[in-house]
Amino acid sequence: MINLIEIISILTASLIFGGMIFFASFMAPLVFIKLPAETAGKFIREVFPWYYLAFGCLSLLLALLLYANPNKWFISIMLANVFAFALARQWLMPAINATRDVVLQGDATANEKFNTLHRVSVAMNSLQLLSISIVLYFLIK
After folding, report:
1. What is the largest CA-CA distance in the chain?
2. How far apart are CA 138 and CA 141, in angstroms?
3. Distance (Å, rounded) from C-alpha 56 to C-alpha 86?
4. What is the pLDDT of residues 61-92, one digit of tens each?
5. pTM reported for the whole predicted model
6. Predicted local distance difference test score (pLDDT) of residue 67
7. Looking at CB atoms within 10 Å, which of 3, 31, 35, 76 has the fewest?
8. What are the φ and ψ backbone dihedral angles of 98, each rounded to 5 degrees?
9. Is-contact 52 86, C-beta < 8 A?
10. CA–CA distance, 116 with 75 (Å, rounded to integer)
């Protein structure tokens, strides 16, 4: 029989998974399609810190909820996600933004650094999405 903590765990994992998919698949692309480039860039810079904070907090909540789960490796996965969200929010996004500013000021040599940092953020986000998918799969299995 499923208990309340298991239900809340599944709902929290689903919220993280669905929110990340929605943002990556719909929200971010629409911002750049529908808004002028300068406005889109400013908007995304304001949204991403909140994205990382919200999903970091939800990942921490899920890690706490999973304390009662017999599969303790779920907790490790979610704590790794919390760390990755914090790292992205506090270090990676500011580095990406600073490098992008240099590119926009005309320094073409910074473009490679920007692309590398952006690829790192996409890879981190993809790994986080994969890890939450695995946790969610085993929670509902």
Report:
1. 62
2. 5
3. 7
4. 999 999 988 889 999 999 999 999 999 999 99
5. 0.93
6. 92
7. 3
8. -65, -40
9. yes
10. 30
What number of other Cβ atoms are within 10 A of residue 135's Cβ? Answer: 28
Which pair of tokens denotes residue 83? 């760390």
**For residues 44-50, average pLDDT:** 96
Place of tokens 């929290």: 12
Round to whole Å and give the CA distance between 23 and 1.
34
Report the Cα 21 to chain-centroid distance in Å.
10
68 neighbors 5 (Cβ within 8 angstroms): yes
Which three-class secondary structure string do you get for the chain? Answer: CCCHHHHHHHHHHHHHHHHHHHHHHHHHHHHHHHCCHHHHHHHHHHHHHHHHHHHHHHHHHHHHHHHHCCCCHHHHHHHHHHHHHHHHHHHHHHHHHHHHHHHHCCCCCHHHHHHHHHHHHHHHHHHHHHHHHHHHHHHHC
Residues in the chain: 141
Task: Output 114-119 pairs: Cβ under 8 A, ≥24 positions apart.
Answer: 117/92
Residue whose C-alpha is closest to residue 12's, from 136, 138, 125: 136
Q: What is d(CA 32, CA 138) in angstroms, rounded to the nearest whole number?
A: 35
